[in-house]
Design brief:
Blueprint lengths: L41 E2 L2 E10 L2 E8 L4 E8 L6 H14 L10 E7 L2 E7 L3 E3 H7 L4 H20 L12 E4 L4 E3 L55 H4 L6 H17 L9 H10 L19 H10 L11 H8 L5 H7 E8 L2 E8 L17 H13 L2 H4 L2 H27 L6 H26 L4 H7 L15 H6 L7 H23 L2 H18 L2 H18 L2 H18 L2 H17 L6 H15 L2 H17 L3 H19 L4 H14 L4 H16 L7 H16 L3 H17 L4 H17 L3 H15 L4 H12 L1 H13 L6
Antiparallel strand pairs: 1-2, 2-3, 3-4, 4-6, 5-6, 7-8, 8-9, 10-11
Helix pairs in contact: 3-5, 3-8, 5-7, 10-13, 12-13, 13-16, 16-17, 16-18, 17-18, 18-19, 18-20, 19-20, 20-21, 20-22, 21-22, 22-23, 22-24, 23-24, 24-25, 24-26, 25-26, 26-27, 26-28, 27-28, 28-29, 29-30, 30-31
Length: 818
């Protein structure tokens, strides 16, 4: 079992409600502690905060260590069999145990003897014991094996250091919140049993009239109901121990194999409800047909090598078991899967006579050549392809090449660095679980997909305009930091056990990634096709996380290049699905895009409610990048709503948030500079000019002069020139922008915005007929998605001068503060 801890009683870095160690050792004959400690009591230098739980070996408290300013788990052991000698032996063993340092073993910081008895100070962990972890939901065979492999590495380290656990069982293995696995309560049962020579293996005695105990499986089955003064738990003991003989490391193999058997099959191979029945069964010898182990309790196939390893570990004769725990563990190691192959194998593609074959050549050690993992994504041939594309399409795009090349170089380097860090943490340092490694690799794989798609899109551009539009792709690659957010990765729903389902989900996600790439490239029509296909297949697969992702992708494409009304319905569903799937970042992003949809439709009636929901979702996600976009979209919304002061305050906060999350020269930061200038343009032309120049400078040094993003900034300068009374210059700037947009179309909202800006400049320049034509085009762009804004343009057409006068008067009124 585990114990919920109370909210911290002293300032520290812990959060409220972690889980602490399970108290091990049922039915050990010992005296109760003389007193039960309360908050404020002292044990040595430690101050007791609260009781976490109690068991056969003693009581565990949460305590504060003032010397090192940290909270610890303080185990106060039950007194030995009435003698100071027993206490001293217990203390000596505890101090020796403190020397055992391994990432899969709970750390023992300190041990001592006080008038309360022997205490042990250990690290305070957050997680749940394996038996509770198993009961939480259906676990796949590979998930179970990964946890037991990690626990087995802890046992191997202990054996190498001269320890045996003496009470290995699922409840003495903790799965931490980040997926790490720790073995608890090493070696301490020896001193609590009958005294014996210090150097002999631990012994067992049995007195059948003592207090009964039980171990319950995830399904609730009881495997043992009576025990005596056994050092350990009878449900997992080797036959030689139950029959009164001494145990050793091979006995620990049996406990490990028995625990793995129970975890996989949710039943005991020994059968029987009472200790005597099990003891009789084990005395005759276990007879377990291998065919009975073909499928786990959930019907999943268990690999033959795993079945054979379990059966050998459960052999009646200790000599028939593995030579060592390390040898047993080696049999449980899984063969390389794709992500694991990336970590421990290089590969060569051999082709001949039209036939290809993958030949895997093991590397000397894991993670020895991290650069090889990215091979085929950004190598010399890829650089040449991209350079050739820029060379083919002429000088108009050539200025962007150095920036594009540098961005790919930096992203590839950061990708390899993160891969190597994760690989070494898992396979070299053993401080990260393989489950977490696999999840980080899936995250990195998707970012590599986006990088690969960006490279291919640039290299395959068929015209200067297509290449210009796509130059933004390397600068919009998803941030790699998300692949280091371990809590969020561990919170993801696991993939289905069925391999066919997994492959379908991988295929859907590849389409989503491609659709997102097309969105960033401004190629909305093809992106909409792919996103629609992804949503359709995701509904068939019935895996909520991928459906939420597909809906989010489709909603973004609809909002940017199709219908804001359709986007709203799609994004509302995306919010619901992502929330149900536990994808807090996906839900937050969908809320943020819903704000954008409300803005471009001038739907301000429910803006306050929408804002509150979006802010709550973004706060829950903890994603700084999404927070920057939320503030950005709120700034735009309030400005369009007629509250420019509120909008300006939000946009300044958005700019700060984006610079912190992305750096000062990111294209998304330039977008916020542009939006800031858009709000300032009617009240402070000089500030607006500075903001637009900031935006255009960033865009020019990333995506180049001809990219739509740079044209947006140029449109802002057009507005400033118009306000400053230089109507002819404004007409020239906006006309240039529109001519480029005609060959590389953008959204209807943007086309309307530029056309109407041009119309007003043309009117002031005396070009009245041209102004009316431009305004009519601007109105027509908005008729479907934003009829209110279209009516405003129609009002301008009726009397431009009166309309502009009313607008100037309205903008002079002070706005509310946020």
């Amino acid at each position: 079992m585990s114990y919920d801890l109370p909210t911290k009683e002293i300032p520290d870095d812990e959060t409220a409600g972690p889980r602490a160690h399970e108290i091990s050792g049922p039915a050990l004959v010992a005296e109760e502690p003389e007193t039960e400690l309360g908050q404020g009591d002292s044990v040595g230098r430690y101050s007791v905060l609260s009781c976490l739980g109690r068991g056969g070996m003693g009581v565990v408290y949460k305590a504060y260590d003032p010397q090192l300013d940290r909270n610890v788990a303080l185990k106060l052991l039950r007194r030995g069999r009435g003698s100071m000698k027993a206490d001293l032996r217990l203390l000596r063993e505890a101090k020796t145990l403190a020397k055992l340092k391994h990432p899969n073993v709970v750390a023992v910081y300190d041990a001592g003897l006080t008038h309360h008895g022997v205490f042990i100070a250990m690290e305070l962990l957050s997680g749940q014991p394996v038996n509770e972890w198993l009961a939480e939901r259906k676990r796949s065979v590979q998930e179970v094996l990964e946890v037991f492999r990690a626990a087995g590495r802890g046992l191997v380290a202990a054996h190498d250091a001269g320890f045996v656990h003496r009470d290995f069982k699922p409840s003495n293995v903790l799965v931490e919140d980040d997926g790490s696995v720790r073995v608890l309560d090493f070696g301490l049962a020896h001193a609590l049993g009958e005294p014996g020579p210090d150097d002999e293996p631990f012994g067992v005695t049995f007195e059948p009239d003592q207090v009964g105990v039980e171990y319950r499986s995830p399904s609730g089955r009881v495997y043992i109901t009576e025990a005596g003064t056994l050092v350990g738990t009878p449900a997992f003991m080797a036959p030689e121990q139950l029959l009164g003989e001494r145990g050793d490391r091979r006995s620990e193999q049996f406990a490990f194999a028995m625990s793995l058997y129970v975890a996989l099959y949710d039943r005991s191979p020994a059968g029987g409800e009472t200790y005597e029945e099990r003891r009789a069964t084990l005395a005759k010898g276990l007879r377990i047909p291998e065919r009975d182990l073909e499928h786990s309790a959930h019907g999943e196939r268990v690999p033959p090598r795993i079945r054979r390893a379990i059966l050998r570990g459960l052999a009646d004769d200790p000599r028939a078991r593995f030579v060592s725990m390390a040898e047993l563990l080696a049999q449980l190691e899984k063969p390389p899967r794709r992500a694991r192959r990336l970590a421990i194998a290089g590969f060569t593609l051999l082709t001949g006579f039209g036939v290809g074959a993958l030949v895997f050549e093991p590397q000397p050690e894991p993670c020895s050549d991290p650069q090889a993992v990215l091979e085929g994504t950004w190598g010399p041939s890829d650089r040449s392809r991209v350079e050739d594309a820029f060379g083919t399409h002429g000088a108009s795009v050539a200025s962007s090449l150095p920036h594009v090349r540098e961005r790919f170089d930096d992203y590839a380097t950061a990708w390899v660095d993160m891969y190597e860090e994760s690989c070494r943490a898992t396979f070299v340092d053993r401080r990260q679980s393989e489950l977490l490694f696999d999840r980080r690799m899936r995250c990195l794989e998707r970012r590599r997909n986006r990088m690969r798609q960006a490279i291919d899109a640039l290299a395959s551009a068929e015209s200067p305009n297509a290449l210009t539009q796509r130059t933004i792709l390397p600068f919009k690659l998803p941030q790699l930091d998300a692949c280091a957010e371990l809590d969020q990765l561990m919170a993801e729903q696991p993939l289905p056990d069925d391999e066919g389902q997994r492959q379908r989900i991988d295929g859907i996600r590849q389409r989503i990634d491609e659709a997102d790439t097309l969105h960033d490239a401004g190629e909305f029509a093809r992106g909409l096709e792919l996103a629609t296909e992804a949503v359709s297949e995701a509904r068939e697969v019935r895996y909520l996380p991928v459906l939420g992702e597909a809906l989010g992708s489709l909603g973004r494409l609809q909002a940017s290049g199709a219908s804001a009304r359709d986007a709203q319905a799609t994004l509302e569903e995306a919010v619901l699905v992502a929330s149900e799937a536990g994808d807090v970042r996906g839900a937050a992003a969908a809320w943020t895009w819903l704000l954008y949809c409300a803005t471009i439709q001038n739907r301000f009636d429910g803006a306050t409610t929408l804002e509150l929901a979006a802010r709550a979702a973004v706060a829950q996600s903890g994603d700084d990048e999404v927070r920057g976009w939320l503030l950005n979209n709120l700034g735009v919304l309030y400005n369009e709503k007629g509250e420019p002061d509120v909008g300006l305050a939000y946009l300044r906060r958005a700019l700060t948030a984006k610079v912190e999350a992305l750096g000062p020269n990111h294209v998304d930061v330039a977008i916020s500079w542009y939006n800031l200038g858009s709000v300032q343009v009617d009240v402070d032309a000089a500030a607006a000019l500075d903001a637009f120049e900031h935006a255009r400078t960033i865009f020019r040094t990333t995506v180049g002069d001809g990219h739509p993003m740079t044209l947006y900034a140029t449109t802002g300068l057009c507005r400033v020139e118009h306000i400053r009374g230089r109507a002819e210059v404004a007409v020239e700037l906006c006309s240039e922008v529109l001519s480029r947009f005609e060959t590389a179309p953008t959204s209807a909202w943007w086309m309307s915005h530029v056309s109407f800006t041009l119309a007003r400049a043309q009117w002031d320049a005396g070009m009245h007929e041209a102004a009316r034509r431009s305004a009519e085009r601007a109105r027509d762009y908005l008729l479907e998605d934003n009829p209110t804004a279209a009516e405003g343009i129609a009002s301008w057409l009726e009397d431009p001068e009166a309309h502009d006068r009313r607008e100037r008067e309205a903008s002079a009124r002070p706005g509310a503060a946020p």
